[in-house]
Amino acid sequence: MSEQIALNNGTDRTKEARMRELIGILNAAAYAYYVEDREVMSNFEYDRLYDELTALERETGVTLPDSPTASVGAGYKAVSKLTKSEHEYPALSLDKTKDRDSLPGWLGGQRGVLSWKLDGLTVVLTYQEGRLQKAVTRGNGQIGEDVTHNAVHFGGVPRRIPYGGKLIVRGEAVMRYDDFERVNRELPETEAKYKNPRNLASATVRLLDSREAAGRPVTVCAFDLVYAGDDAGISDPNSKNAQFDWLAAQGFTVVEHTPVTPDTVVQALEQFERELPGNAFPTDGLVLILDDEAYGRSLGSTGKFPRNGIAFKWQDETVESRMIRVEWSASRTGLLNPVAVFEPVEIEGTTVSRASVHNVSIARALRLGAGSRVLVYKANLIIPQIAETVESTGETFVPDACPVCGGTTSIHENEGIETLYCDNADCPAKHVGRFTHFVARDAMNVLGLSEATLETFIDAGFVRRFADLYKLERYRSEIVTLEGFGEKSYDNLKAALETSRKVKFSALLNAAGIPGIGKDMAKQISRYLGAGAYERFMTLISERADFSAVEGVGAVINDNIYAWADDADRLSEFTELAAELDIIDDVSAAAENDGTAAGGTAATPIAGKTFVITGGLNGFDNRDQLVAFIEDRGGRVSGSVSAKTDYLINNDVNSGSGKNKKAKALGVPIISETEFMEMCGADA
Ligand SMILES: [Zn+2]
After folding, report:
1. CA 370 to ligand 1 centroid distance, Å
2. Per residue in 19-42, pLDDT tens?
3. 576: domain CATH number?
4. Are 338 and 297 contained in the same domain?
5. Same domain for 207 and 306?
6. Residue 592 pLDDT
C-alpha cells in the first residue's frame, strides 16, 4: 500500500506540474476565445497542447479538477434565447410495466441490459471530429432546444473524445439530491425554489447564460448510443453492452447498468432495488433493453412504443389513511407549502404521517378536507405522497392569513401552477429562516438552538440582529421564566453560544446569508482571501474589488455581494457581529506556506484528490474534523467509492465492508489514517 503512495507522490509530481501549466494556458486561451472573442493562439497550437494534456492524463490516470478535458472550463457564453433544433433520430418513449415477473418472458430468450431510468432532462449530444458539436434537449422527441453553450460545462460531457467520426449519444442531465438541496438553499431569496432535482436540472440545462449553468453541478449520464460510424472500433457494434463500454472508454459518464439474461433479470432488478434508497441521483425506475441492436430494431414498434426496450416502475404500495389537516409551512422566501397531515400508517417498513402536496393547485385538486380518506404511497419507495383521495369530505382549506404572522397571503400563478405566499415583508417566517440558517451546523454551529426557540426570542424582541444572540444575558431573567425554558436550558444555550464565537471565516460568511453564498462558495472565497480573511474581505469590499475573479464565483455572486454590502443595515449587522467573534482563517499557516499563490492550497500533496472515509478514526475526534482537514488542503471527500475515488481511508484495511470490497474491485488504494497523514506530510 505505502509503495503505491510513494509512486503517486514521486514520479507523477513533474507530470502533474506540467498538467497544471497546460490547464492554465488552455483555459486562458479558451476564455479569451469564448468570452472576449479574442484569439491568443492558433487552433493548431491549442490542439497540440490539448493533446499533450490528454496524453498526460491518460498516462497518470489523473484528471485535475479544472482540466478543460473534464468539461469544466473557462469558456462561458450567453445566448438571448434557445434556438430550436430538429433531431436527426427522433426519440421515442418506452412502454412501461410494473410487473417484474413479466421481464424474463419479455426478453424472450435474448440477452439484455438493465439500467437506471434517471429522472432528469434528456439531452442529445452530437460529436464530429472528436469535438462536441451540438447538444439539444429531447423536446417533443422530434424538435428540441440547442443547449450546447451549457452542455460543455456539465459533468459527463467530454469536450473532446478520441473517436474522430460522427457520434450521437443520448444522455440524461441529472442533479444529485445533495447538490439539489445546496443549490436550492443558495438561490437568491427573490427566486422561487425548485421542487425536485429534475426541475432544477432541467432549468439549469436551459439557462441562457452558461456562466450561471456552470456553477450548478449537473451530470449528463449517457444511456443510449444513437449513432456511431463503422470505424468507431466498438468491440461488438451490435451489442448494447459493448456500446456502453465503448462510450465509457471515450470519456462519457455512462448510466449504471448490468448485462442480464432471462434467468438473471429479476435478481439484477432486486439488486437495483436494494441500492435505491441510498441513490445519489433521482431515478424513475429501470430500463431494460435488448442487447442485440439489429434484432431489437427488427421488432419495430407498437404504435408509439419501440419494442426493443421497456421501462420498469416499482409498484408503489398504497395504504389508506384519513386526513387530519393541511399544514401550510412557511419558508424563508415567504412561500407557504401545503403539507398533508394524516393518521400515521406503515408503508414499506416506516411510519408515515405527513406528505408534501407541493402547491395550491395540487392541494385543491385533491380536496383534502379533514376526515377525507386518502391513499398514501412512497414514490420510488422513498418520498411519501398522496396518490388520490378515495372519499373527500370537502375542499382543501387555503388560508388567507399567514399561519406565522397573520398577515395577508396571496396566490401567485406561474405556468398554470398556483402557489401561496405571505405578503408581509417582515414576516417572522422570513426572519426566523434567516436565523435558522445563521445557527446551522455549516454556519455558526450553535448547538441546540431550535427554530421554535428562535421564534420565541424573535417574537419577544430579544433578538433582532445577529449580534443580539451574543448579548442574550440582558434578557436572562425573562428567558429563564419562559415556558419550557429553565435555568439549565439557558446555561446550555449560553455555553453553546460561547463555543460558537470561535468560528472559521467561511462559516461566518455562510452564516451572513448573502444570496448564492453557501458553505462551498464561502470556502472558495475564504481560501482565496487566505490569512486574515475577515480583514481582507472588508478591505476588498471597501475597495469594491471584483470577486468574480475568484475561481467558481462569477458575476452573479459578485453582484450579490455588493447588493448585500450596499445595504447599510446588513453590512453593519455583519461588522457588529464580527466584533463579538473570534474569527479564524480557513487556511492554516502550514497549508498556506506550501501552497502556491493561486487559490492558496493548490500544491498540497492531496490537492485535487478525492477521498472516501469509512470506519472509526484514531487521530481525529470525528469524521467532520478529518473532512475539514482534507478540504483545507484542497482535497475532496465523497460519500461513496467510485472510479473517481483516489483513496479510501479505513483504519481496518482488511475489513470486509462494502466500501472496502468496492475499492478493491475498482483498484482504489485503501489507506490507514497513519498512511494518510504521511501522505499529507504529517503537518497536522
Ligand atoms: Zn407571514
Report:
1. 24
2. 888 888 887 776 665 545 466 777
3. 1.10.150.20
4. no
5. yes
6. 44
Distance 71 CA to ligand 1 centre (A): 44
Please say which residue of 312, 335, 360 terminates a domain: 312
Q: Residue 163 belongs to a domain with what CATH number? A: 3.30.470.30
Q: What is the DSSP letter of 550?
A: S
CA of 320 to the centre of ligand 1 (A): 33
CA of 117 to the centre of ligand 1 (A): 40
DSSP percent split of the chain into helix, strand, coil, nearest 5: 40, 25, 40
**What does the alpha-carbon distance between residue 226 and residue 331 come to, in Å, rounded to a whole number?**
44
40-95 confidence digits (pLDDT tens):
777 667 777 888 888 888 888 777 766 776 543 335 566 667 888 888 888 777 88
pLDDT, the chain, mean:
83
What residue spans of 11-63 are helical by DSSP H? 12-34, 43-60
Domain span at 464: 428-500
d(CA 95, CA 312): 9
Annotate 345-364 with DSSP letters as a single string. Answer: EEETTEEEEEEE--SHHHHH
The predicted-structure confidence for 483-537, as pLDDT tens digits, reads as follows 778 888 899 999 999 999 999 999 999 999 887 788 888 988 998 888 889 999 9
482 burial level (CB within 10 Å; 0-12, 13-18, 19+): middle
Looking at the structure of the chain, the number of domains it has is: 6
Q: Is 325 exposed, middle or buried (0-12, 13-18, 19+ CB in 10 A)?
A: middle
547 alpha carbon – ligand 1 mean position (Å): 34
Residues labelled catalytic? 117
Of the listed ranges 106-120, 411-425, 431-445, the one predicted with least confidence: 411-425
Question: Is 0.90 surpassed by the pTM of this model?
Answer: no
